[in-house]
Amino acid sequence: MKSGMAPAPPKEARAPKTARLELRVSVPERELLQRASALTGLTLGDLACEGARAAIERHERLRLRDADREAFLLSVRSPPRPVARLTEAFREHAARVGPRTPAR
Fold it and tell me: CB of 40 within 8 A of CB of 32?
């Protein structure tokens, strides 16, 4: 399986295939799908499911990234006060290594 593709569930965990899906594509698109099927060893249906899983995964990752970005920006705008152990660690570090020099 290529990187970036979501793994298919194990065969024993799959539901029986009873639903049918028809798809109209152009001849070049059909050839593309058949070539991808031959290269991956997946059936056309499984190949379509892999693409759907990958699309959902990309969407979920983007959605999480937006939420993570907001949490990060909030913490930068109003950072929490350092706990006593962190303050003490900075003092101990300065005593051992020397005072912190400003970045240029």
Answer: no
Residue 79, token pair as written in the block: 């950072």
**Number of domains the chain is built from:** 1
Residue 11: pLDDT band by 50, 70, 90 thresholds?
A: low
Which residue segment(s) compose the domain that 64 sits in?
Answer: 25-97
Over the stretch 88-101, which tens digit does the pLDDT of each residue have?
999 999 999 987 77
Give domain status of residue 84, yes or no. Answer: yes
Residue 6 falls inside a structural domain: no
CA pseudo-torsion sign 72, 75, 78, 82: negative
Percent of the chain with pLDDT over 90: 54
Say yes or no to pLDDT of 5 above 60: no
Residue 50 lies in a domain: yes
DSSP letters for 56-86: HHHHHHHHHHHHHHHHHHHHHHSPPPPPHHH
